[in-house]
Each structure stands twice: as C-alpha cells, then as structure tokens.
Amino acid sequence: MDNNFFVVAGNIGCGKTTLTKLLSEEFAFKPYFESVNDNPYLSDFYQSMERWSFPLQIYFLNHRFKTHRLIESTQGSSIQDRSIYEDANIFARALFEQKSMDARDYENYLNLYYSMIEFLSPPTLMIFLKRSLPKLKERIALRGRDYEKNIPSEYLERLNNYYEDFAANYNFGKSIVVDTDDLDFINNQEDFQTLIKKIKNTLDQQDMFITLNS
After folding, report:
1. In angstroms, rounded to a whole number, what is the distance separating the alpha carbons of residues 198 and 202?
2. Between helices 189-202 and 16-27, what is the axis angle to 10°?
3. Cα–Cα distance between 16 and 81 in angstroms, integer?
4. What's the rounded Cα separation, in Å, for the pair 189 and 32?
C-alpha cells in the first residue's frame, strides 16, 4: 500500500491533537504531534510576543520541517498535528501584521521557509478544523494551560481569519474544511463517523484505509 500523509490543521484550541489521535487509531496511521510541553519559547512568547515571536517561529519551523522529512522517509501512513505551511501562512503572517515581528525578521523567516518547502512533498490530505472564537476560548480554558490564559482574543480572531483565507486558497493538494462548532467528533460517535465518511469521499482511493474496526 502506498504511503499516505494527513495533516490536521487549525487554530489554537480547535481540537487538532485530539482528532490526530482519533484518526491515527481509526486508520492505523502513525501520529506526529506538535511540540508544546517541551517547547522552550512558548510560555515566554505569550508574555511578550514582540520579544519571542521570531525565535518561537524558527523553533516551530525547524521542528515541523524535521517531522515532515521524517514522515516522508518512513514506511507506512502518517498523520501530523499542524503543518509547516501553517507556520508561515498563518502564524508568522499574523505576528508580522500585528507588528509583533519586524519586517527584517519576517523576510528572513520567509526566505528560510521557502527554501525548506522546496525539499518537501505536500500531504495527501489537509484537514482544516474551523471553530468560532467563543468555542476556542472555551476549549482553551478547559485544558487549563497557564501560559494560554492570557492569549488575546484579537490574536485568536486574526488567526481564524487567516485560516479561512489559507483554506480557501490552499492548492498543495486535497483538503477538507470541518466546522467543529457543529460537529462533535470527540464525544459523538455518529459525528465522528460522518467525518470519516467525508474524508474517504474526498480521496480517490477508497481501499487505502486499514481501519482497526474492520
């Protein structure tokens, strides 16, 4: 069976990590998760975005690039929690446009990003998770990470707007958009199976999946 590579994309608190885990179990894909708990910059970043935006984005860029390359070199199918494409098109862009990253650092970052993606093949499928600002804030509060308590609502809303723009113009390959306000794939098995069906219908090869329930 050919290797397949899914990405779960979306804003902070939209349920990416949970869905990555659920889909990895459903399809027997190897999961790759975002570097959060061991990230040396994240806590400082939310205290001072201007000071830490560039080193944080470089850290994520490096981590995501190495993960993407590892996935490409590994036999079998994989699923990744957030992609290198989001780093540049969503997060670095947001930080620059809200003046939390200066133009010199942003240009340097983009030059590095474009050099890196020349060495990468795009995912088989990009799954964009969409979630409204009140629902994002509710989920962020529920998971109780201290450094996330002070994330500005304006920042989350800006990221949401950029995700909508990126999803609408995504042209690296196949993609779907999932509104997680209306679809509770975590607690409702029927909703989860609706999502599975949507994923399968998006792809040409129906026999590429090995489900643990079959």
Report:
1. 6
2. 70
3. 6
4. 23
100 φ, ψ to 5°? Answer: -95, -5
Q: From CA 35, how far away is CA 63, in angstroms rounded?
A: 8
160-188 pLDDT, tens digit each: 999 999 999 999 999 999 998 888 888 88
Q: Are 4 and 124 in contact (CB under 8 A)?
A: yes
Whole-angstrom CA distances from 213 to 26, 94, 193 are 7, 41, 12
Separation CA 50–CA 46 (nearest Å)? 9
- What confidence tier does 204 reach under pLDDT thresholds 50, 70, 90? low
Helix 153-169 to helix 133-143 angle, to the nearest 10 degrees?
120
Global pTM reads 0.88
Q: Can you tell me the distance from the alpha carbon of 117 to that of 172, in angstroms, rounded to the nearest whole number? A: 11
- The answer to whether 113 and 61 are in contact (CB under 8 A) is yes
Determine phi and psi for 114, rounding to 5 degrees.
-65, -35
Which residues form the catalytic set?
81
